[in-house]
Amino acid sequence: MVELTEEDRALADGRHGAAAADAFGLVLRFAEAVRAPRLLSCASAHVDGCLYHGQASLDFVERFVSLDGRVMVPTTLNVGSVDLVHPELFIGDPAVGTAGKRLMEAHIELGCTPSFTCAPYQTLLRPKFGEQLAWAESNAIVFANSVIGARTNRYGDFIDLACALTGRVPDYGLHRTENRRAGVVVEIEGLGDAGADQAGGIAVAAGLFVGKQCGDTIAAITGLPASTTEDDLKALGAAAASSGSVAMFHAVGLTPEAPDLQTATGGADVPVVARLGPEDISGILASLSTVTDGTPLTAVALGTPHFSLSEFDRLMPMLDLAPFAVPIYVNTGRHEWERLSADGRVQRLETAGVTVVVDTCTYVTSIIRDLSGAVMTNSGKWAYYAPGNLGIDVAFGTLADTLMSAKAGRVVRA
Known about the structure:
- The protein has 15 helices and 14 strands.
- α7 runs parallel beside α8 and α8 (230-243) packs parallel to α14 (380-390).
- By secondary structure, it is of the alpha/beta class.
- β7, α8 and β8 (249-251) form a beta-alpha-beta unit.
- Helices cover 39% and strands 14% of the residues.
- The protein has 3 domains: 6-177, Aconitase, domain 3; 181-286, no CATH class; 297-408, Aconitase, domain 3 (2-Layer Sandwich), CATH 3.30.499.
């Protein structure tokens, strides 16, 4: 039995409107299913259900629109099915494009912020350490828990919006301190100092290993390079959440709940499940490529999760390699796109042959014009999903690799 507060009863009784009452019924039944003893107030929500997966997803949201629903906490939106800023980029089924556009707009009518990004932590609505959240989207969840130290479970489509419409989440799982401790250790060893591209690759490899080998057990990762950046941790979490059911990791000495290994494990003696050296890292990264060096390319895809402003800072000097032999697509959020537009970098990118995509991502919707050959990426998540989603071959490499390969029109390594 879930213990209800007076505020909970007000939601259930319809004192906050019919939409909130309906949504509260869903949250309450979900809480009962996971045996949560009570509900918690959440500081924000991030909704994944604005990506169109069929009529049911649209019907669900339209019901709350018809009931004049409004979200009760700041709510960001994950990627949708189309780029609303650049609708001409969509080359898929027009019916899917129309329905996807309506689904995105319906969420805005509920009061959600039209962020349409898988990296809401890069916006002005970044949560704070210790805040309780109702976040969906796998990489956003793992980043919030691990890198920020906010608290959310892996909320999925529909329940994410229900939590947003009520401002309530069940008190279970990663909302509780005792469930946030590491249960295994993964050691990175023998790598020494690492440059920016090397640190990023190490992070992706560590994430893929944790996702595939650790299941939903929280891993404490030791030995990551001191040069590891927030963007690298973003890539680590995205790879882990894509290849497994990871919702949180600890990077010892780098993430807020893991200043040292003892803190990360809560003082428990937990097993070391792997020691990954240079050859292991290289092997894991090589497994992301389905083609060999020298293979012709038809495109380069960057920004999964969405490119940050600091990643654009790294990219801009590489545009001196233009003209490129193949088109380059970079996925990013509206927050970043607006900054790039204001300071003139969008024009510089477009002149160099780079297409900046917002609101969606090139592995979930039809945007890349030519998929007849291999596509290269520096994203572990894109490389992991694209072969299945798009039916293509993929080459994985560093950011420098991808730009040099775009110049050559084939897979080359820096």
